[in-house]
Design goal:
Blueprint: H1 6-31, H2 34-59, H3 67-83, H4 89-111, H5 117-136, H6 138-141, E1 147-148, E2 154-155, E3 158-159, H7 163-184, H8 187-197, H9 199-204, H10 209-235, E4 237-238, H11 245-258, H12 264-284, H13 293-312, H14 317-344, H15 352-359
Antiparallel strand pairs: 1-4, 2-3
């Protein structure tokens, strides 16, 4: 066996993804420092938002720079509901998803009628508008001073902080990945891919392309809102500066680096981006580095990462991992087959079936 079929290669990735998340979920709190546990939890939430962007961009071909805006809507919805209206945190998170979905429906209906770079510009405007509203609605959001006093999420009487919050985030990420993997094999997922591949052809076959484009937009927005809704009670404080356009660009980088072909590309991209972010944070806080160089260094590193991925593997890092796994499995399979043959005939004589093939001239 010298090669694996694309279907088997995809199956390997589908099994390796949940297995890797399970290892991260169980082993991470035991081996990571408190700082890295916080970064790992944020990585899981980046993964959740990245999966939504994978469906939107990878399936339907809609480029969105508004994921950071929906992340902010989910976070501020939880903050306002808990601080201003005294809603319990769990109920606030559920309501924030509904609020994010309704906002995505109202915004997405006109936005998804656009094509090409126009939809990218429109969603970029969305991210800017959300930040502007957070700055100006001071009675609700606290404005530039921020919104503080958000209570901590508690489940079964246990506050979700530190390692517990880390486990919760990765458990949510695992559920989201499983849902996205099943979505890719469902009727809706096939309709998404059909619309992204050939919208005119899909309409000719009776697929309502506008409706499916809107569904993908709402799905991606709700997952981004979920990430923000979980992170708000963990931080306990929200500021408009945390939801700049750079956050939306970060989600785009997650998908570009990991790859859009599979939801597990978001896992690879989220881990890579989080690791780079942590390294940059440790580097830019050094006292011997001029303060003016820190933003430029971050931009340079992210740009270099995108350049290297697009130059060496335009489909993302995930296909490289898939091919590496395929080579390992193929090598192990050849080794097992050779070992079985030697055990069947330790003297090296031809096996009966091989002799029969030689006799008939094969």
């Amino acid at each position: 066996m010298t090669a694996l079929s694309p279907r088997l290669r995809s199956a390997l990735t589908s099994l390796a993804g949940p297995a890797l998340i399970s290892v991260i979920l169980l082993v991470g709190p035991a081996v990571l420092s408190p700082q890295h546990i916080d970064a790992g939890a944020l990585c899981a939430l980046y993964l959740v938002a990245g999966v939504g962007l994978h469906v939107l961009m990878g399936y339907t071909g809609q480029v969105s720079f508004g994921q950071g805006g929906f992340w902010a809507i989910g976070a501020y919805a939880v903050g306002v509901l808990t601080v201003r209206l005294d809603v319990p945190v769990v109920a606030a998170i559920v309501l924030s998803l509904i609020i994010t979905g309704v906002c995505a429906l109202l915004i997405g209906w006109p936005v998804t009628q656009l094509r090409g770079h126009y939809i990218a510009v429109a969603t970029l405007a969305l991210a800017l508008i959300v930040v502007d509203l957070a700055n100006n609605l001071e009675d609700l959001t606290g404005g530039n001073a921020g919104l503080s006093g958000i209570p901590t999420l508690e489940l079964f009487g246990r506050p979700m902080v530190g390692a517990d919050f880390y486990r919760l985030c990765w458990l949510v990420a695992l559920v989201v990945l499983v849902i996205a993997a099943n979505l890719s094999r469902s009727r809706t997922g096939r309709a998404f891919r059909s619309v992204g591949a050939d919208e005119s052809g899909s309409q000719a076959l009776g697929v309502p392309s506008a409706a499916y484009r809107l569904r993908a937009f709402i799905f991606a927005a709700v997952l981004a809102g979920l990430g923000g809704a979980l992170y708000a009670p963990y931080l306990g404080f929200l500021s408009p500066e945390a939801f700049s356009v750079e956050l939306s660009a970060l989600f785009i980088i997650v998908i570009i680096v990991g790859g859009m072909r599979s939801p597990y590309g978001a896992l690879v991209g989220a881990v890579a981006v989080t690791a780079l972010t942590q390294w940059l944070n440790s580097l830019t806080t050094r006292p011997d580095l001029p303060a003016r160089l820190a933003p430029a260094l971050s931009t340079l590193c992210y740009g270099l990462l995108i350049f290297l991925v697009m130059r060496l593997s335009p489909s993302g890092v995930l296909p490289l991992i898939e091919r590496a796994l395929a080579r390992v499995v193929a090598a192990l399979t050849r080794k097992d087959a050779g070992s079985a043959q030697r055990q069947a005939d330790p003297l090296g004589h031809p096996l009966p079936e091989e002799s029969a093939r030689v006799a008939v001239g094969e």
